[in-house]
Hints:
Elements: H1 7-20, H2 50-55, E1 58-59, H3 74-86, H4 88-108, E2 114-119, E3 122-124, E4 141-154, H5 159-225, H6 231-265, H7 276-279, E5 291-292, H8 296-302, H9 304-324, E6 330-342, E7 352-361, H10 367-435, H11 441-476, H12 486-489
Parallel strand pairs: 1-5
Antiparallel strand pairs: 2-4, 3-4, 4-6, 6-7
Amino acid sequence: MAMPFSRPLAAGTLAALLAACSTSPVGPDYHVPEQALVRQPAAAASFDSSAAAEHQVADAAPLPAHWWRLYQDPALDALVQQALQHNTDLRQAAANLERVQAMAVEAGAAQSVHVGMDAAPVYGHVSGLSLLQPGYQPPTRGMDSVGVTLSYQLDLFGQIRRGIEAAEAGTGSAQAALDLARVNVAGGTARAYALACSAGLRLRTAQHSIALQQQALDVSQRLQQAGRVDVLDVGRAQSQLHQLRATVPALQAQRQGALLQLQTLTGTIPGTALPPAVANCERAPVLAQAIPVGDGAALLRRRPDVREAERELAAATARIGVVTADLYPKIALGLSASSASPMSDFGARDSIGWSAGPLISWTLPNTGAVQARIGQAQAGARGALAHFDGTVLAALRETETALDAYARELDRRAALTAAREAAGRVAEQARRLYRAGKTGSLETLDAERSLAAAEAALAETQAQLADDQIRLFMALGGGWEAPGEQAAAR
């Protein structure tokens, strides 16, 4: 004897069978490809710039989260902190992250039960002809129609899961983009501050050189009047004075431009007064220790642009599965209930209808078109891998280049320091001879001018050193971490 088999039980059994048929999501599961450059041992090796090793300008210690504090400059600390709080680029990146996070929430909502409701209260009557009763006028009355539907899509082929994976990877990419903006803002602020201070120092040395040259011109003019030198000597002195004065406007513009850039980076209206420690700075920040750089593995984990490229690769891989699922049907479990009756009978038992069962949606695919979209997604993933590899190479190159440039500038500073010391000894000897009456004032002033020129060249290399240091810190990719996040970044 056959057992009774109710329709609701049949629907439930069918749902269970469909759920049992659930398979792994279509498309490739994401992992960093074995052939990716980031997996090569050489990418994780220590930095080995020969010039950097010779000068011992770097060590393998991990980069601190707030590298600018290594300069122990309160004015720089305050500027970077203000920039990280008010910079407009950071605000845009933060807003973009919020937008992408909302998109990820939207993608996750596809896993939820969807509820729909409609209601249509009306007043009127149908036509008699529609009832095949010519001349009949149906009664006018109020009618109601109410319906509620519940549906849940069975993600049998993983299209929703792959979509969520892509959205989550997009969120990670947007977070890395925000971190990269923080790196650029912190580094840009430090560079602008160093440039303003260096321009102030170079202005001071230029003014000193101008004063000495003016003295030399005055002496030449007096000697000409006494008939001891000719007009050519005076002309050469005047020409040199004009050349020195010509350097001042460019330095003033450089300093003003750096100050305006600082105001823009810190979210301040250009032209607003800056703190005196910044506006009158004449000493570039100096780092009196080797720069902690870690190794290649730490660099690639820390650099936000590398993380951003890796998350873009993950999203591109997940999108292959999203497109591949279009080859298969979409099946949802549905439950609907409705009521349609005159308003006087609203809610009556005989006005209610319901249904439950699987809702199958499948347009027989145009295989060529779907395969073309799959090919597009696969090509996108290959392009994302190439971009990832390129970002890794760029990160390693930028760091090695910055290390080498910094070390070479140290060589230049050493040579200019020696030149300044030699010029200082000559100037001191010329002063002693002048006081003893054994040499003239022009020879003494020439020695002083040579000393001033050596000091100006030394000030220029000090400015370049500060810029090279900050470029290296930016290449190392630090500065985005909150104090408690650095360990996780490693």
